[in-house]
Structure formats: structure tokens, C-alpha cells
Amino acid sequence: MRSIRPSEIRGVIFDLDNTLLQSRLGAARGLKVASSMIARQLRKQGYNYSESQILRKVHLIERERRAPATGLVPRKLYNRDTWWKSLLKQLHATKLHSPWIHKTTLRYWDAYRRASPPFPDAEATVRKLKKTGYRLAIVSDSDGTPGMKRLRLESLPFRNLFETTVVAGDDTPRVKPSKAPFLLAAKRLGLSPQCCVYIGDNPETDVEGAKATGMTTILVKRRAYAVPLKGRDPPRASPTFQVRSLKEIPAILAG
């Protein structure tokens, strides 16, 4: 891997989920809350499914969504309403489509947000980069529910350290690994992509998308979060650098 000359890089752009936030914790909590709500609604209608049975089925739907390269997944599948409707279809309970489905999605995201704290190394690293003089931004995919990702971004405790945030799929027509959200972030910072580093946890959506624009890429592969998806092809792009912790990044950027 090549080294970086400090004068080359002026902008640092971060992914959000599983890079700055411990989002797998939030996802697990959100699915549990949603499964409980769905099981209660089904019981009211005479369907006898336990919360654990619903949770297992929802986990399968989640894995199906993540199985293809994320950039090829139809945007509607980011919307959790679609997940619950898919579940009801499997259970032959489609007649239950009603406003409570979207209410379940809102409860899911509320639980997700509350259970996704920043990683211990996140704020300190971002503050150090800001103090050093780097221009900072975030690029993150849409949550599928209009306004939800923006709400989660605004609740980030150190959101004020970032000059701009781009929600791919909302601010741009396509989600990552489309080049559009990365280029938009660089444009908002007033920098060329070649002067930016993108930091993320996903070799496909983060590394592939950012590298295609000419950005330097850093893959964060935390031990507890380095779980590959079965049946997925190797990523088509390799990161410029790979780290175990965000704490390593200031030294890398210093050359």
C-alpha cells in the first residue's frame, strides 16, 4: 500500500453505521422490538407465532436484503415497511396491511438509534482530525424511511464537527457504491476527490464507491465487526489502507 503525503489530503469523509456508530447493536435491538410488535399484532388476529419465531424470519429477510452487492439492491428494500410486508406475505397474513406496519418501522428506528452509541474511538479521532485542520464530512446510505437517516445524523453527539452530510439515495439518485454521493460530498467541501480520504467498514459500498472517484480509501475492520457474509464474492476493490481502529488514522494521514 502506498504512503500518503500530508499535503495531498485536505478532506476526510466518514461512513456512519459500523464506522462511527455501533450500529449492529442498534439493528439487533430494533429487530427485537419490531418482532415483538408484530407478534402481538398477529396474536390479536388469531395467528399463533412467538416473538422468537418472528425474529428468526425477520433475520432471514435482513440477510436476503444484504446478500447481493448493496448498490444493486432496489432502493425500496431499504424501507423496513417492505421487510414487515414480506414477512406477512410469508405467513399468509397480508390482510393485516395497515398503518401499524409503518408504526413498527418508526419504533424499529427509534430503538435502533438509542442502541447505537458511537465507538469509543470515534469522537476523539474526529476531534483530532478537525483540530489538525482537515475538512470533515459524512456519506451514509438512506435508511429507506424519508428523513430517518437525517434524524440519526443530527443526533450524532459530535455532528457539529462535520461541515456537511450526504445521504445517498436521498440527496443523490442512487446509494453507495454509486460515485454520486462521494462526488457530492467532495463538491460540498470544495475539494477534488483526489484530495479526500473516505473511511468506511464495507469493502463493496465504501471502498469500491470511493475508490472509483479517485479518493484514498481506509477500511475499518474491527475484530468484533469483521464478519463476512456467506456466499458473497470477494470485493472488487482493495482499500489503500486497512485499520483496526479509528485511532490509527491521524498517523496515516500524517504520512
Explain what you see.
This protein is α/β, with parallel strands linked by helices and 255 residues long. The chain is 43% helix and 11% strand. A six-stranded parallel beta sheet has the order 3-2-1-4-5-6, with helices on both faces. The protein is elongated. About 6% of the residues have low confidence.
List its salient traits.
alpha/beta; 2 domains; Rossmann fold; 6-stranded parallel beta sheet; 255 residues; elongated
Outline of the structure:
The protein has 255 residues and is of the alpha/beta class.
CATH architecture of the largest domain: 3-Layer(aba) Sandwich
> If helices are DSSP runs of H or I spanning 4 or more residues, what is the number of helices?
9
Per the CATH scheme, the topology name of the largest domain is Rossmann fold
CATH top level of the largest domain is Alpha Beta
Number of individual domains:
2
Model regions low in confidence, pLDDT < 50 over at least 5 residues: 68-76, 225-231
- Write the element-wise H/E pattern from the N-terminal end onward: EHHHHHEHEHEHEEH
Strand residues, percent? 5-15%
- Give helix % range: 40-55%
Q: How many whole angstroms does the radius of gyration measure?
A: 19 Å
Q: What is the CA–CA distance across the termini? A: 12 Å
In terms of quaternary structure, the protein is single chain
Mean pLDDT: 89
**SS class:** alpha/beta
As laid out across the biggest beta sheet, the strand order is 3-2-1-4-5-6
The beta-strand count equals: 6
